[in-house]
């Protein structure tokens, strides 16, 4: 039997040859997954012999990664803002940028009395935003909405997995929501149709197109929200969006044509790129 270190080095080289970024880290993550270990525990077990069954399973997963399948889909879950989020090919993989959006929202919510307050998350997907915010703020009523029945199935699983009560509604945009909200958040599709073919293979070939592509301009969802949000919001409601890194001024302009919006801010991500917009309903 070959040792853990021998198998790991061979896997790292295989991923490197396949031009997979962070090949060492990803080979380690997949091996830790197979062995039900923490990644750091591997360093203490380099001499451990692996069974044929362990090697065969590891090679199967490494081959999938070598074919550009995202590691999150292979492992089946990702940590996200204090929650564990299961993912499938029916939902977009939660990104670090979205986790930063949730952190931004949590900082604002922590300063507010959330008794009897309602937050809606449209285009909820895996439910990562809705579930993680409900987990952080149990007194907040959280509702997630998505058009995809399959995505909502994953979102409901994530609520159960994280032991939180989130209401999930199936439907187009805000249509299923017939009440008024105090907080609105959305990470909607914002990729232009013409940009789709230029996306990385592991995004374009594996993640759901409907969760990525907005349409011709990339800002269709924001234009729709600007029209449809007012009747669904309580006075003073706070709104949060994730946006494309080149869309800050475009989305800001969408919300500058009517006096019902105020305090609009364009927020930056880790790379100092425009990534979020926050504003308030008058």
Automatic annotation (TrEMBL):
Positions of the Methyltransferase small domain: 99-195
Enzyme class of the recorded protein, top EC level: transferase
MF terms in GO: peptide chain release factor N(5)-glutamine methyltransferase activity
Positions of substrate binding: 187-190
Keywords: Methyltransferase, S-adenosyl-L-methionine, Transferase
Annotated signal sequence range: none
GO biological process, alphabetically ordered: methylation
A Pfam family recorded for this sequence: PrmC_N
Catalytic activity annotation: L-glutaminyl-[peptide chain release factor] + S-adenosyl-L-methionine = N(5)-methyl-L-glutaminyl-[peptide chain release factor] + S-adenosyl-L-homocysteine + H(+)
Keyword Transferase: yes
Binding-site residues, S-adenosyl-L-methionine: 146, 187
Transmembrane residue ranges: none
Entry's EC annotation: 2.1.1.297
Residue ranges annotated for the Release factor glutamine methyltransferase N-terminal domain, each copy included: 6-76
Family statement drawn from the similarity comment of this UniProt entry: Belongs to the protein N5-glutamine methyltransferase family. PrmC subfamily.
Reported function: Methylates the class 1 translation termination release factors RF1/PrfA and RF2/PrfB on the glutamine residue of the universally conserved GGQ motif.
Protein name: Release factor glutamine methyltransferase
Source species: Candidatus Criblamydia sequanensis CRIB-18
Gene: hemK
